[in-house]
Amino acid sequence: MGSLKRCDVHGETTGVLGVGENIAEIIFEKRKKRKRKRKKEQMKKSLKKELTFQNKEKENPADALALAKKEITSQNKEKEKLADALALAKKELILQSEKKEDLIDELVIVKKEKAARIDALALAKKELVLQSEKKEDLIDELVIVKKEKAARVDALALAKKELVLQSEKKEDLIDELVIIKKEKAARVDALALAKKELVLQSEKKEELIEELVIVKKEKAARVDALALAIKELILQSEKKEDLIDELVIVKKEKAASADKLALAMKELAFQKEIEGYRSKMESVALELALLIDSANAPIFGIDSKGLVNEWNQTSEKITGFTKDEVLGNDLVQTYITADYRESVKKILDDALKGKETANYEFPLFAKDGERVMVLLNSSTRRSVDGKINGVLGVGQDITELVSYRNELELKVNQRTLKLNEALKKEKELNELKSRFVSIASHEFRSPLSAINFAAGSMKKYWTRMESIIIEKKLTKIEDQVSYMISLLDDVLLVGQAEAGKMRNRPLTLNLEKFINEIIEEVYHSSKKSHKIKLIDSEQLKRTDLFIDEKLGRTIFINLLSNAIKFSPDADKVIVELSSEKDHTVISVIDYGLGVPESEVEKIFMPFTRGENVDSIQGTGLGLSIVKEALVAMGGKIIVNSTLSIGTTFIVKIPKKTTIKLLS
User: What is the per-residue pLDDT for 223?
Assistant: First the structure.
């Protein structure tokens, strides 16, 4: 802080003035300088007149004498004037000394105010310390929130583990399905081996038949030879050859007969063996046919034209069609669903070309119209000469397995969807809590600081404060408490809305009285900063409004307060009444900042505020409460906004008749 010199009437330094004394001393010095300047100018004028007079006196003594007398008279008058001026100056000095004393008193008051400001500064420092302590408390709360978040993350990890476990169970089920398929493949392989054995046996049978034909041909040749021998014997007997020769011939014939008898015996034994082998083959074929017919898997066969020629009991059981009903019908066109006909036909055509297929899923039509899922293995059927003459299909009814698999996949998908929704809600809840902590901390800090400061000032200067100042500070405290209560009420309303506890209890109210009371209340609470004009071109004031009074007041007080708050450069807000078939329409129109197009969809979310209103006090709860209240009463709200021009909120409230029809 600087200082000035203290001077007396003659300009001599008498001391040093502090900052509080500078102003009075400077004013006093300026006045003295102006007086000295005037006196010097008067002295100069009087000297000029005297010199002029002396010059004239020298030129004309008589005139000079007369002039001298006049001059003396004028000087005497001037002396009298100077005496009067001196008296006035003395009075002025007395007044200035009195003013100086007043300035000194004012300086004392200023020093006291300075001391009061120092005390206030100390109080503010204490408040800062208190706020830092509160900040630490908030940090501790934030740590707790983070711990809760970590706990939720752990819960999420557990949920993910559960998903992994479910996926592992799903893999186990898939492994079981693979094992079943392998077992099925093993059965199919066994069946293929049985078919090959049958083919081999049929081939052996054909070889035996061929050998039998050869034996028969040899036997016929021997019979022919025997006939020739007989003819020769007859010829020899006719020629009456030697008896010895005849005897030899007889012996030979006897030996030939013995050989023939032995050969016939061998042929008889061979035929018996063939008959035994044939009976065995027929028994094996019968057993194989019985096995196919009674197998626990659906088995069907088609010929080269695709017509059914084999249909076992299991096929009858799963489809409901008997063997007699299906034999001779086209398998693909009659019993395969339209969406699979092309692919199944290709598989059967490939089998008819010698290309077999394993583990192919396709649906069969059942007699009751249901679809039966079959896991198919197709194999080629061949004739005795090795030519392809059809296809044998061995299947497995996997309808229940497919249903279980689909059900399991659906459950997994539903569970995943629920978990994703839970995670999304958890994320939204965390974001909502973060926004709430941030906004609530900011919104509560300002009124609490104001209350603390006002209460501290009253406590410290209570005895020296005037009653008007005390009343102002108490009013300020009440205003801040009311603001905090309204903020808490808004938070509670949002909580009720999210919990589905917001109740709508509509009553029949007079529209004019209802809307005018709200307009008057908002007009006075906003300190009459904006005029609120009511437009009723359809003369609806005297009509009734069917609405929950508490929710209705919340809706329109919020909308009107926002309209005033977010139009700081405007001086009016419009409320317009209109009517539709099923709704009473109340529009609130302002000429303020407007809402950016990208943020229109977000403004009804809790704790959401536009980027262009960050500098204006608010929590971002008002429009959220408005939306939830209208949802509770079955109403609607529409927003039309242009940035920097204004916003219109159109509220549609259902009429009583509409609500009765809906209920």
Answer: 64
553 closest CA partner among 577, 524, 521, 529: 521
Mean pLDDT of 404-429: 80
Residue 308: φ, ψ to 5°: -70, 130
Tokens of 144: 């707790």
Q: Please give the torsion angle defined by the CA atoms of residues 299, 303, 305 and 307, in that order, rounded to the nearest 10 degrees.
A: -50
Task: Give CA–CA dist 474/656, Å, rounded.
Answer: 46
Q: Which two tokens stand for residue 500?
A: 């589905």
Are 458 and 470 in contact by the 8 Å Cβ rule? The answer is yes
Closest CA to 348 of 314, 289, 395, 401: 395
Tokens of 632: 């509770």
User: Positive or negative, the Cα torsion across 367, 370, 371, 375?
Assistant: negative
Smallest Cα–Cα separation from 574: which of 585, 558, 563, 562? 563
**CATH fold for domain 295-397:** Beta-Lactamase (3.30.450)
φ and ψ at residue 372, rounded to 5 degrees: -110, 120
Q: What phi and psi values does residue 495 have, to the nearest 5 degrees?
A: -60, -45
Distance CA 633, CA 475 (A): 37
In eight-state DSSP terms, residue 292 is H
Which CA distances in Å does 514 have to 171, 287, 541, 549, 591? 66, 95, 9, 8, 24
Domain 502-662 fold is: Heat Shock Protein 90 (3.30.565)
User: Which residues fall within 8 angstroms of residue 48, CB to CB, at 6 or more apart?
Assistant: none
Q: How confident is the model at residue 596 (pLDDT cuts 50, 70, 90)?
A: confident
**In this predicted structure, what is the pLDDT of residue 588?**
95
Q: Which of 77-86, 196-205, 348-357, 620-629 has the lowest mean pLDDT?
A: 196-205
Identical fold between 295-397 and 502-662: no
Domain positions in the chain are 1-109, 123-294, 295-397, 502-662
Whose tokens are 């014939």? That residue is: 253
Question: Of all helices (H) and strands (E), which one includes residue 652?
Answer: strand 646-654
pTM (2 d.p.): 0.37
| Distance, CA of 202 to CA of 211 (rounded, Å) | 14
How many CA atoms lie within 13 Å of 152's alpha carbon, on the beta-carbon side? 16
Which own/partner pairs from 201-207 qualify as long-range (CB within 8 Å, at least 24 positions apart)?
Answer: 201/281, 201/284, 202/281, 202/384, 203/384, 204/277, 205/277, 205/278, 205/281, 206/384
Residues in the chain, how many? 663
The single-letter DSSP state of residue 330 is B
Four-residue CA torsion sign, 334, 340, 342, 348: negative
Nearest-angstrom CA–CA distance, 545 and 516: 13
Q: How confident is the model at residue 317 (pLDDT cuts 50, 70, 90)?
A: confident
Q: How far apart are CA 336 and CA 339, in angstroms?
A: 8
Are 337 and 370 within 8 A, CB to CB?
A: no
3-state secondary structure of 53: helix
Q: Percent helix, strand, coil in the chain (nearest 5)?
A: 70, 15, 15
Please state whether beta strands 4-7 and 13-17 pair in parallel, antiparallel, or not at all (unpaired).
antiparallel
d(CA 483, CA 435): 19
